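Suppose you are handed only these lines of text.
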Amino acid sequence: MARDTLHGLRSSPRHALAKPVRPIDADDAERVAAVMTRFCEADPDPKAGFDDTDPFRLLVTVLLSAQSTGPTVARIAEALFSTVRDPAGMLALGEARILEIIRPVGLGPSKARNIVKLSAALISEHGGAVPRSSVAMRRLPGIGRKSAEVTANFAFHEPVIAVDTHVFRVSNRIPLASGATVDAVADGLARLVPERFKDGAHVWLFRHGRDTCTARKPACPRCPVADLCLWPGKEL
Ligand code: SF4
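From them, the structure of the protein bound to iron/sulfur cluster can be written out as follows.
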């Protein structure tokens, strides 16, 4: 299996939808639960394939992942955290040096600025620790909904389903929650996915989109939820 990496989300994800979005209605609740049951049976204890034990490192890594590829982000995060341990260490490193290290991930100047602001806010407002809830994280500089929900889910097991480019695509195709925007899909997943599946849902859907229901050529003949998928473009 490919190594997990944090994955950015392009600003206009509509391109992933080769067919029109199908609205979800109340009758779909059973089908959504059946899909999640299938993923859960195949992988009952999904684990992120990277270090999720340090919430600060995870939050900064997610911030770095915006519009960047996973392997580059993993390499740059490793370099950045080879000397830094906490927000105070990040402030001591300073914006100029941070920028030097992170430049290969793209959008370096704004990301470096946000990492400094984020570190300062964690120290002044949260005693140097990352808050446990995604709602609180979303108030931090440079942290949007996806970043907050990935971190809260992986680091603290908050039952929220972060929507990245893979989750967005498969949610619309199957569909589990349909929508033309990330927020619409995230709100739909929050409403339709049963609570007991929410902790693992991001990892299941991310891996399904990365390994099976890929953007260009979904592997429908070997898809574990093909019988539950309503996508008009599926090929069996
Ligand atoms: S059947 Fe094909 S389109 Fe549907 S979820 Fe599976 S891989 Fe994706």
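What can we learn from it? The chain has two domains: 13-47+159-228, 55-156. Residues 1-5, 8-16 have pLDDT under 50 and may be disordered.
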